UniProtKB/TrEMBL annotation:
GO terms for biological process: antibiotic catabolic process. The keyword Hydrolase applies. Transmembrane segments: none annotated. Belongs to the metallo-beta-lactamase superfamily. Class-B beta-lactamase family. InterPro entries: Metallo-B-lactamas, NDM-1-like, RibonucZ/Hydroxyglut_hydro. Residues 36-222 form the Metallo-beta-lactamase domain. One of its GO terms (molecular function) is hydrolase activity. The lineage of its organism: Bacteria, Pseudomonadati, Pseudomonadota, Gammaproteobacteria, Chromatiales. The keyword Hydrolase applies. This is MBL fold metallo-hydrolase.
Length: 295
């Protein structure tokens, strides 16, 4: 597939009038405006549907430039797939341009909980490039865990399959083309990150619900565009391993430091980017999650 560049975002066609915006898999930096993630957009006869809006006002401008390189149609909707900074902190910029911000209730609720914290953590990274960023959420969040939408004849489904990387994470499903934008439910090419708010058992269950959709094209939250088989290798197998190994160790009250030491190598996953920096902390956080019952 052909690709165009806008800053650090690589624009990749993934279907008819459907594009992924692929960001770097490394750390958030001022140079990439914290866009170390994947986003996407759909071009319809009535305008553009943007999937996630970036971590800042400046990041949102980069996204808008990437869209303009493909179409001059305006962004009509911004759909948020999650509550981590680069999923939604660019909402205000697009809302000012006339776009409607769309999110499920669970996503918007979590955004409000974490918005100030995420802005504080971004300040040392982005510095002056964070200026003008406002934590704007959907004005009328959608009730329930499954919404069916349509714009310009394109049917879009927004689904919360269960708490994962953050509570209220959602996926965007295009059933006609069987394309799935997973948000932070799926990581490809790099190791997923377990956060203090992540729920590992629920994450694994959400992943298996995602499998049942049988997507043909899968745009992960991080990493290159892939398919279900690769998602099962890079994300599903690791979630299974955390549950089966760390969960079992915690159930037996094996000391945490011994669990981390015993499982730190995990050669079956060591090829994934960021393994060295994330695996130990993932084990630690997963253990604590299991200790509190995954609640």
């Amino acid at each position: 597939m052909t690709a165009a560049w806008a800053g650090e975002l690589k624009t990749v066609p993934v279907g008819t009038d459907v594009y992924a915006l692929i960001g770097p898999t490394g750390a958030r930096t001022a140079d990439n405006d914290a866009l170390n993630c994947n986003l996407g957009f759909i071009v319809t006869d009535q305008g553009v549907v943007l999937i996630d809006s970036g971590a800042s006002r400046e990041g949102a401008k980069r996204i808008a430039a990437a869209i303009r390189a493909v179409t001059d149609r305006p962004v009509k909707w911004v759909i948020n797939s999650g509550s981590q900074d680069h999923r939604w902190l660019g909402n205000a910029y697009f809302a000012e341009q006339g776009a409607e911000v769309i999110a499920l209730e669970g996503t918007a609720k979590t955004q409000k909980v974490y918005g100030a914290q995420h802005l504080a953590r971004l300040k040392p990274v982005l510095g002056e490039r964070l200026a003008g960023t406002e934590p704007v959420t959907a004005s009328a969040p959608l009730a329930g865990d499954h919404a069916r939408l349509e714009l310009g004849g394109v049917r879009i489904e927004l689904m919360d399959l269960g708490d994962a990387h953050f509570p209220g994470d959602a996926v965007v499903w295009l059933p006609a083309q069987r394309i799935l934008f997973t948000g932070d439910l799926v990581y490809l090419d790099r190791l997923l990150g377990v956060m203090p708010s992540s729920r590992v058992l629920s994450w694994r269950e959400a992943f298996h619900r995602m499998e049942a959709l049988e997507p043909v094209v899968l745009v992960p939250g991080h990493g290159r565009v892939g398919d279900l088989a690769k998602a099962e290798r890079d994300t599903g197998a690791y979630l299974d391993w955390l549950v089966e190994q760390v969960g079992a160790a915690q159930a037996e009250w094996e000391p945490l430091d011994e669990v981390v030491a015993r499982l730190a190598d995990a050669p079956q996953f060591s090829h994934l980017e960021n393994f060295e920096t994330l695996n130990r902390s993932n084990i630690n956080r997963a253990y604590l999650d299991f200790e509190r019952g995954g609640e």
